[in-house]
Design goal:
By secondary structure, the chain is α+β, with helices and mostly antiparallel strands. Helix content is 51%, strand content 13%. The protein has one domain (2-77). It has helices at residues 19-26, 37-48, 58-77; strands at 2-6, 9-13. Strands 1-2 form a two-stranded antiparallel sheet.
């Protein structure tokens, strides 16, 4: 979500509804884009989830994936 300040009140709206992003989406596929840090973060949050519970943190992910990789590596060696 992007917050736009209008006076003292902030309006929340989707990153996809901002004029700058709408203009980029209207460009032909493959056209290079340049995002601000805030735009990139908002797009990533929209794409990958907004909070804990949906994705494990880094340490938990490694804990879960390590045995899988070990098994795959052992199979490829033998």
């Amino acid at each position: 979500m992007v917050r736009e300040k209008r006076g003292r009140r902030a309006e929340r709206r989707s990153i996809w509804e901002t004029p700058r992003i709408k203009k980029m989406l209207a460009e032909p596929f493959g056209t290079p884009v340049e995002l601000t840090k805030d735009e990139a973060i908002a797009i990533a949050r929209d794409a990958f989830g907004k909070g804990k519970g949906r994705w494990p943190d880094g340490a938990e992910y490694v804990k879960r994936i390590r045995p899988i990789w070990r098994g795959l590596l052992k199979k490829s060696d033998g």
